[in-house]
Amino acid sequence: MPAEAWAVPITVGERTNPSDRVARGSGTQDPISRGHMAGQANRIDDTTLIRQAQQGNRAAFEELVRHYDQAVLRLALHLTGSEADAQDIFQDAFLKAYKNVVNFRFECSFYTWIYRIVTNLCLDHLRKRQVRKEDAAVSTDSEGEEYSLLDRVPDGRAAANPERDFMARELGKRINHALDRLTPRERMVFELKHYHGLKLRTVGEILNTTEETAKNTLFRATQKLRGSLSDMR
Amino acid sequence: MKCEWVKDNIVLYVYNELADDARYELEQHLGRCPECATELKATRRFHATLSVTPVDEPTPNLLTASRMRLQEALETTSQGGLWNRLAFDPGAWLRQVRFSPALAAAIFIVGFGGGIGATYKVISKPVTPILGSETTVVPPVGEANITGISSITQEPGSNEVTIKYNTVSTQEQKGSLSDQRIQQLLLFAARNNYNSGVRMDSVDLLTQKPDDTRVREALMYALHYDNNPGVRLKAIEGLGSFVKDDMRVRDAVLGALVSDTNPGVRTQALHLLEPVKADSSVRAVLQRLAENDQNQYIRSQARTVMAQLPEID
To answer: What ipTM goes with this model?
Structure first.
């Protein structure tokens, strides 16, 4: 395990609490405030569960995991493009959270903290993929052209219109290639902003950087993507 | 406001990340600068293009499998604290020094010695009560000597149980359900026995004591791993009353609903999950089953349960 993945910063980020999430969710939604995370008002407050988990209550930790696991899996799955890798990141992230929850000091929200662990693991994964050129989701066909394995997974939803389905796949393939050309950090900022709808302030907190840096990184990522996909505009 | 500034910030405008005053000024500028208005259109079009590949939700199967794998790992993981970080970690030290051959030899010697010690302990020391605490200390059954359980019978109208088990030769143990030796043998039989009839009898008797955590774990183990559908069915029936309160039981039943090969076990799982159908993971699994499960009955039952659910926001 690379050292960075274990470096779980706890004291960084401004003081927030779970109720802040709802307020910040207006406009662009945080993933926590939609879908699985919606309608959590009747659930036991995270703070109580965290305190119980810190006292060694595993059931409380498992309940806490339930509040975030779907969003975590969605992020890992989209970033890695592989169910097996996503499962590994999911497993490592929550085990690390379990081992370190005693050190959580409520100086940032729990979801910022858990996202920080997950994004560190995902960044490690992306870096390894770049260095080794062992992209599990990309293979080379008989003519030497790269294709994404994900593109070959049959999609039952769009069977009604095969032509449109084909076009969407081609487009998806192009976009995936363009995303792979970003640096891991650019990819992460773009992922969290564009696909997961987090506010840049939150992205900055998660990645241990400022909102301004996150803005610059997003700008750079967008410019690169526009360059890579310029013939599609 | 210069066009250059607008071009630098138009992405933030599209992502709704500009402060109110900057946003207002940018909109004013767009109203009078056709070039920047064209740039905005291009940016919006690009934004829409990138959104043709939405982020799919993980499938219920993947989510359930990930949760179960995590739970299994949590059972063997301890929380770290200040002490753990400060404490001397010989494993890490040895990894650094790369003492692989010496470490292998040391592990072998310690393991061999430990194995002898553990066997001696099982044979010689009395065990503590397993279920409940109403019994006093009695001589234990030497579990290491048990080679199998050959039969289990319960006296009609009482909680007296007779268990025949094999060591070197077949032995017999008689006692009430609260007898620790009987409980030990039942737990052993539920997990280890080669005879599925005996496993079924032991699981059946254990369901009378599901409040005990070890029994519940034995039942979950049987539900997950036993290759006999009858045993799995008995186990799931015993777990029924805990689906609501025990998250691990709920996940085990959910796992059976998704992946058990026997339709009877799956049907029972579906019925047991009805009271917790509003749980997000249960709801997700039900939706998946209602759409494309191969078993027509499960599909229609899942639809029926889904139809009773209130809409969520």
So the answer is: 0.70
